[in-house]
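Write out this protein's structure.
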Amino acid sequence: MQITLDHVGKSFGSDLIFQDVTAKIEDRDRIGLVGINGAGKTTLLNIIAGSLEPDQGTVARGSGLTIGYQRQNAGLRRGNSILEEMRSVFADVYELEARMQQTAEEMSRDPENPALADRYKELEDRFLARDGYQVQVKINTVLTGMGFAEHGFDKAIDKLSGGEQTRLAIAKLLLEQPSLLILDEPTNHLDFKTLGWLEDYLAGYKGALLVVSHDRYFLDRLCGKIWEMEYGELTVFPGNYSRYVELRDERNARQQKLYEAQQAEIARLQDYVDRNLVRASTTKMAQSRQKMIQRLEAEPAEKPKARMKPPVIHLNEYAAEPVKDVLLVEDLDVQVGEGERQKTLLTGVELSVARGDKVAIIGGNGAGKTTLLKCLLGKSPVNPGARITWGRGVKSSYYDQGSDHLDPNLTVLDTLWEYYPKSYETPLRSMLGAMGLKGEDVFKRVGQLSGGEKARLKLAVICLAKSNVLILDEPTNHLDLGTKEVLEQALAEFTGTLLMVSHDRYLLDRIPTRIIEVEGGKLHQYKGRYSDYLREAAGQAAPSGKTEEKPEKEPPRKESSFLRGKEQRRAEARRRQEYAEAEKLVAQLEAEVWRLEQEIASPEAAADYLLLQDLCAQVEEKREALSKAEDRWLELSEG
């Protein structure tokens, strides 16, 4: 056991954040913590990490527990280089190595001294216990996997962007290997290559993992439990995110049926009482039914709470269609910087977009995706000779992934008035209300808004524009899961033309009709959605026009080999496959045990002894199978 939460509660002033939170984190748990922005997820993480005390309840931590908590840009020493920061994790190992070297020199001068030999042996044993000879390999593997090879490991931390510093903080935690690793939105600022490497690394992580993420693809791949924080309560579900959605909906449907059945029974009994209480011949029967009503009302079936309302997003209200050829791009070079610092990111871009196309642009960080969009919109300069032609009748709206274009001193309502100065207050406030910005929220200054609130404000601007062409740059960043789902549905139903940049793999596997990958300074096009792109890219080493050079394309494969033989790599691949299958079986059996336990607790089982006996037998059988599956999973995880 790592951590036990027992009836934990927390308030800030008169605001109750959550109460009666009871849960456990076991040694190799993979837990995803989900809930809308402001539900209390970060507060709970801080309590678990020990940086915040609960107001009620207790937190018990196992002996020897070490916790690594990834916070934004936390735990990095300014002035260090990337390599120095990573080497600081192994300061004790480097000290042992220095002492071993010193002792070896003394032994060379005094070879007959047994005390020196004993000292060297003791130091070497400690060095080996810390896997000292593999330290540099570990550092290289993690830094390369997290995308720092291109920087050079001597680059100063101060020169990294905020997103890069966050990635480096995660890399440092991976090297520290705490027994409980807590990650808060770790997939932000990661491109597909880095994200895939991180998922593979965490899949084999030997400690427990607790992660807050709005990346459903990530939660599906890694998590075996989901903690849902809603209405100040924590509910634990077995399985990954997709399974959680199924179980949550099944639970709500079951609760709704039980509630409706009880209400119907109360109404039936009350009707009998109303008709028969005053009649002498039926008074006793009516009184008996009154007592039955009182018993039912004393133990009411819980009415399922309504899901917290996500925003309402409508994008199909544009008035006119554009011509068939919406966009034509020829001979475009995408460049950043000026003078000697000018850098060409893309050369000879050729692109055509037809009415109704839904095009997604993907690629590594810094490849030129956002700059390409800005060139198309005339927000960045283009090379002489480039031709960018928008079709007649195009009305476009641009969603910028940043918020620098929003005036932090304006209120939310005034921001909309800046875009739509001729609009009345009522429709603007109605739109803001649909986005969850209600009441006094509309008078907040933009600089006071959270990332999620700013994202919803930008969506309000887009919805009011009623455009037939949408150009979106990372539209799901900072959005909670409920808002993401609503936006996806709106984009799926959008009958206009869409051009977007995104790292959201769920979104990419639902919306686009075409994927454009930016790589090697060129655009490479794939028909279909993200899963189609993965299949085609995997089976095609060099698509038409694609750069042949691939040494930087697959660092995880290069790092993972480290001169191992083919047989070792095949054995390792088999072990990873068996591990994934074992983990899937554990999640499946956990879900079955949970389902049977819910049936045992149902009124139907309580009223039917034979059914109850059968369910108890089934749950014991599943628990035994689960225990064996967990043993096998642990055996495989230890390599």
